Amino acid sequence: MNKEFGLTVKKNENFSEWYSQVIEKAGLADYISAKGFIIVRPYGYAIWELIKEYLDKKFKETGHVNGFLPCLIPEGLLNKEEKHFRGFNPEVFWVTSSGDTPLAERLALRPTSEALLYSIFPKWISSYRDLPLRINFWNTALRAEIKSTKPFIRNSEFLWQEGHTAHIDNEGAKEQVIKILSIYKQFIENVLLIPTISGFKSNKEKFVGADYTTTLEGMMPDGKALQLGTSHNLGRNFSQPFEIKFLNSNNKEEFVWQTSWGISWRLIGALIMVHGDDKGLILPPVVAPIQIIIIPIYKDQNQELVKKHANSLKNQLSDLGYRVFVDERDEFTAGWKYNEWEMKGVPIRINIGQRDIEKNTIEIVRRDNRQKKLIPLNTVSAEIKETFKMLESDLYKNALRFLQDMTHLVENINDFKLLLDKGRGGFLVTNWCGNEDCEERIKEDTGADIRVLPFDIHDLPIKIGNGAAFLTLRQCVYCRQESNQIAVFARAY
């Protein structure tokens, strides 16, 4: 595809192709011939680095430290917690030989790290004084993608963060689970500007080996849900088979209580989907590799003067802490540059030319709504700060409005199917009896599963009033038996 021509499809007409074109033309990633694997280009990786930098700081502020894990796991370790491993077995890549020499024991390419890490925990933990143990890893995971692949959303290898903690009691583990989910929620909603629904996973959908899983779910423009982050209470389900014990203050031996939690680069995919438009990416300022692009506009005779002023402005803004770039390329027109940097989602563009220099002004252009504003040069610091604030507010409000439009109260299975068959999808809030058989039948009949059991229905992005009276009737949407749970269903990635 030729970058010069921009996107050839509209977001609301061919969403899948639009997404693929944005990935390629914005310079985020490229494909290789192996299914499910991608090469992340510097611009795409820079977004991940900013996500990592922000969250890493938050983890360290709350007492977590980073470590490193190898990517190969002996099969014997995985089999120590058979129920957990069984959940990943279809996705595991195996190493069976070294050169032409067969290995005595198969090695799994790490699908997740519980078994590997927890085999070492007994060496690190012996007393209550060693607890809580809080450790985090920034690494890759490999899971053979047996469904359709999608860059940053479904890959056979992906970048992620996984945290693991051990505690003296279940109360400490419970507190940890919510603390991490809160960090994720604050980041996703306040930085990435993507509204979420939070709550528990059903027993069927929870992390294999967990007592329970908490989750943050987002809604994508094609009506499909996307899991954005999870935090799991593992109870003693791993400490017992791996014999992770400690001596308590009474000198008695106990098993530890554990948690694990993680996010992945699918947050980049969510950013693209939720905020992007027919011009390409729209990046929230905090995770934009370039926050301000300066375009010098000149003719041959005033070229050096305009470039000098553009770089002077860049230095001024850089000193204020902004990531700024001046596009001085002479082989492209200003209009071509506008389109390219819009494709890359840079939040603010500044145009500066001979006339602006004479009047001591600059033109600021917002990426999200392309709104232009001519301002005095001496007010640039305050104007940039205010523009970023307004842009962030508008991006979140627009995303929240969409989430509200795509969240529906559903009383019976016929309305449930009708909403999904219309093609809009969305979150369907309804009563559920808690029976896994009903959950599976709904999935078979509609393709929708339980994305989240909300912590509080009043936090859902819908008006809970007379229109939601049926929620108090406690009648399951599918079997019409007594219901004891509000559930949010959706088709999902």
For the CA atoms, what is the radius of gyration?
25 Å
**SS-based structural class?**
alpha+beta
Number of helices: 14
Fraction of helical residues? 25-40%
The quaternary structure here is single chain
Major sheet description? 11 strands, mixed
Total beta strand runs = 23
Distance between the termini: 26 Å
Looking across the biggest beta sheet, what order are the strands in? 3-7-8-14-11-10-9-22-23-21-20
Uncertain ranges = none
Q: What form results from the Cα inertia axes? A: globular
Strand content: 25-35%
Q: Overall pLDDT, averaged?
A: 93
What does this structure look like?
- The protein has helices at 15-25, 42-61, 75-78, 82-88, 114-118, 121-124, 170-190, 266-275, 303-319, 334-343, 354-359, 380-405, 413-421, 436-446; strands at residues 29-31, 38-40, 65-67, 72-74, 94-98, 101-109, 133-142, 157-167, 197-200, 212-219, 225-235, 245-247, 253-255, 257-264, 292-297, 324-326, 348-353, 361-366, 372-376, 407-409, 427-432, 449-454, 485-490.
- It has 493 residues and is an alpha+beta fold.
- It has an eleven-stranded mixed sheet. A five-stranded mixed sheet has the order 16-15-17-18-19, with helices on both faces.
- Helix 2 (42-61) packs across helix 7.
- The longest helix has 26 residues, at 380-405.
